[in-house]
Amino acid sequence: MYSSADFELSPKLSRRNPFTPAQLLSLAVLLVVFAIQVFRSPTLLSEDHIEVSYFGDKTAPPPVCKEPNLFEAPLPVTRPDKMSLLAEAKRVAAEFEYSAEDLNIGVKAFIEQMHEGLQKTGSSMSQIPTYVTAVTNGTEKGLYLAVDLGGTNFRVCSIQLHGDTTFSITQSKVAIPKELMVAKTSKELFSFLAKQIENFLKAHHDDHYQAQIQRRQTVSSPNGFRSAEIFQLGFTFSFPVNQVGINRGTLARWTKGFDIQDAVGKDVCELLQAEIDDLGLPVKVAALVNDAVGTLMARSYTSPGKTGTLLGAIFGTGTNGAYVEKLSNVTKLESLKGSDYDKSTGEMIVNTEWGSFDNQMSVLPNTPYDEALDQESVNPGIQMFEKRVSGMFLGEILRRAILALIKEPKAKLFSDEHSGKNELHSTTSIAEDSALYKQWGLDTSFLSIVAADSTSDLRVVRQTLSKDLSVDAASAEDAEAVKLLVNAIGKRSARLSAVAMAAIVIATGNHLSHGGSVSDDIVDMGVDGSLVEFYPGFEDYIREAFRSIPELALEGEKRIRIGIAKDGSGVGAALIALVAAQADKS
Asked: Among residues 148, 267, 291, 416, which one is catalytic?
């Protein structure tokens, strides 16, 4: 707006032209803008849509457009109140930072606890001997069975190994009846499992089954037993056991809703074998299997090149790792009574149970959200590493961090005083029954969705907030704040994962180059689980961390090959049964 003084200071202007050059230029610009809009929207010609005042009238209001949405999309503008939201979100995200210094301190502590676990029982990291003393190389052939009792389902598989790093798998799955999960005797459960094996053999390997019938009918003949092919079976039993042999282990306790007291303290392989024998099946329970060990074996069979796999790791609902250790380093074997294993290879796969790394919290990072999660968990003070890494817990950590921002007056997350402040023109609201207000209400898959959203306005994040968490009309700034937290939590998980992986490489001496060919110098790792498979950039974060560790640095990181190894509880279990059978023959 111009004052009358503008005209008084321009005496040389013609009386026919009461406007200054600046005024004329401003008017010309307005006319050009209006002309463009006329061609884009004929409705602008109506007096109902445009009000114009003349610059020469100092009392007139400025031009006003009654249609605020003239443009296809409004330019994003970060409001001052939302700037404070992003500042607060960055503050909370910074609490999850895990620096290069922290990383290297963690690696040293991990190696120390590895060594302690190899020497004695009762250490922070269990370092459980598996009695598996060889890994496969992809040339093995044969047909093997595997069964997996990991929870509410029981899976039976047969795996045909082709001898060229490939295999074929046939499988079936059945739900465990709830009454058998709390049966009075172990026989009820294990006879049910054996019956499923029999049904599987009849359905998919009837020739072997019929051969067994023939064997039983000709048992008095010297050739009677030779007419049957005995299946070697790997038994994945995902409950705590005290393992004392490759196919020997006593149940320590039940978890996951099972409670059959007379099974506790008994050898689970013997329980299953007894019921298999009662049905006369041509099956031998050859190996008791942990899923991380199975992942290592599955990767070792399918990995390219001649290099054997060093590590099998799970980064899913839980986390764990198993690796190949020198037998001479597993000194606590000498004190384990009744242990039986093949010593010829000089190696043994060790199940680290690294979820319990640093339960004493000497080096692990900690935030108020981690502390609250642990205190309200079913096992406070236990599995402290797992509670910062695995998929079961990341969603809950995020939920608690989001709630902290909601309660912070400066942040005003998911809060608009009125709809005019939200570019969606709708008031942001959180339903009273939102999953945000429920413990374990936020699934870790939410983090993967948020991390993957690269749209300019984070519309996928906003849609997921509405769908999964009942947060309606979240703003772009709200979504950006949530993504800041997700990225921080996911990155910390990956960098902690790198601590465990790098520590094993260094502790076993595999960080040192052997000076051979590139293929001989590879350090191979097999991984499985939803985090490493589906969380965007998880492996990239791990590799970034590797480069920050002096013993590895850039060259060491390049030598590490990480490959997905699917179905460790199936294929891996079958391969361990193969190794066990070979050890028996030798």
From this structure: 291
Active site residue 253: yes
CA neighbor of 63 nearest in space, from 100, 17, 27: 27
Q: How many residues does the chain have?
A: 586
Q: Which of 253, 335, 340, 433 is catalytic?
A: 253
CA–CA gap between residue 19 and residue 59 (Å, rounded): 16
pLDDT tens-digit profile of 390-446?
999 999 999 999 999 999 988 889 987 544 556 656 788 999 999 999 999 999 999
Q: Which of 90, 269, 126, 141 is nearest to 193 (CA)?
A: 269
CB atoms within 10 A of CB 54: 10
Give the chain's radius of gyration (CA, Å). Answer: 33
Residue whose C-alpha is closest to residue 291's, from 321, 266, 330? 321
Tokens 């700034």 label which residue? 477
Q: Catalytic site residue 400? A: no
Rounded to the nearest 10 degrees, the angle between the axes of helix 206-217 and helix 186-204 is: 110
Q: How far apart are CA 333 and CA 128, in angstroms?
A: 10
| Cβ within 8 Å of residue 178, ≥6 positions away | none
Q: Do the Cβ atoms of 334 and 544 come closer than 8 Å?
A: no
The number of beta carbons lying within 10 Å of the beta carbon of residue 584 is: 13
What H or E segment, with its residue span, contains residue 477? Answer: helix 476-507
Q: Which of 172, 238, 415, 470 is catalytic?
A: 238
Of 439, 462, 440, 438, nearest to 449 (Cα)? 462
Q: Which of 58, 148, 180, 240 is nearest to 572 (CA)?
A: 148
Three-point CA angle 134, 139, 141, nearest 5°: 95
As a whole number of angstroms, the distance between CA 28 and CA 234 comes to: 84
Task: Decide if 291 is catalytic.
Answer: yes
What CA–CA distances, in Å, run from 538 to 316, 351, 494?
12, 23, 6
User: CB of 352 within 8 A of CB of 115?
Assistant: no
- Is pTM beyond 0.85? Reply is no
